[in-house]
Amino acid sequence: MVDRQKLEAVRQFWDSEAATFDNEPDHGLRDATVRQAWTKLLVEWLPPSPATVLDIGCGTGLLSLVMASLGYTVTGIDLSPAMIAHAQRKAQAAGLPILFQVMDAGHPQLGDQRFAAVLCRHLLWALPEPAEVLRRWAGLLARSGRLVLIEGFWQTGAGLHVQQVLDALPAAMMNIEVHPLSHQLVLWGQMISDERYAVTTELATTS
Questions:
Q1: How many independent structural domains does the chain possess?
Q2: What CATH number has the domain bearing residue 160?
């Protein structure tokens, strides 16, 4: 059951963060080296373009823009209207046809749409009942669709350890791979000492 009061508090918090969100090197990707590093990983993790991708918790849209520039058809969703407004302005300025929508990432309302890939960066840890969330996200995948989860456990004590994500994956997921990211400082634009990683997996095909 969705706690509307808590959801509104979260929405207001991220609305207040939207104006400065891109100041972090791995958020704004303003440094060409950082952007190129993320672009390289997305090419490795995603199915070949052109393909449809859902960017869950897209924030100000930087990964959405990167994926669209690679030829993907991208939909980005985020709870924060302010974040979505920033993302829309960036896409318009770049001339990229990305569909951004304000939406609760934990309960996406996308009808019968199915995507070749669903990507989420640094959000799953903040959602209640991650196993249920991942079940809903897996339901948005087309046959053999790819799920890309970029997560971490930070020095603040917030986050998910990689085993927690693996334990929460639906049984229907196969070809699970863990990609350690803590040592790749080029991704973060600064020194880090916490646990950062990605998990990629595919929806099993049924006979």
A1: 1
A2: 3.40.50.150
- What is d(CA 182, CA 121) in angstroms, rounded to the nearest whole number? 14
Residue 117 pLDDT: 98
Parallel, antiparallel, or unpaired: how do β-strands 52-56 and 195-203 relate? unpaired
CA 109 to chain CA centroid, nearest Å: 16
| pTM for this entry | 0.94
pLDDT of residue 2: 67
Do 117 and 143 form a contact (C-beta atoms < 8 A)? no
What six digits make up the tokens of 127?
């959602």
Residue range of the domain that includes 38: 4-203
> Is pLDDT at 160 greater than 50 in this prediction?
yes
Query: Distance between CA atoms of 66 and 140, rounded to whole angstroms?
Result: 21
Tokens read off for 7: 């959801």
Q: What is the CA radius of gyration of the chain?
A: 16
Q: Provide mean pLDDT across the span 187-203.
A: 93
- Phi-psi map region of 57: left, alpha, beta (phi>0 left; psi -120 to 50 alpha): left
Q: Within 10 Å of residue 150's Cβ, how many Cβ atoms? A: 24
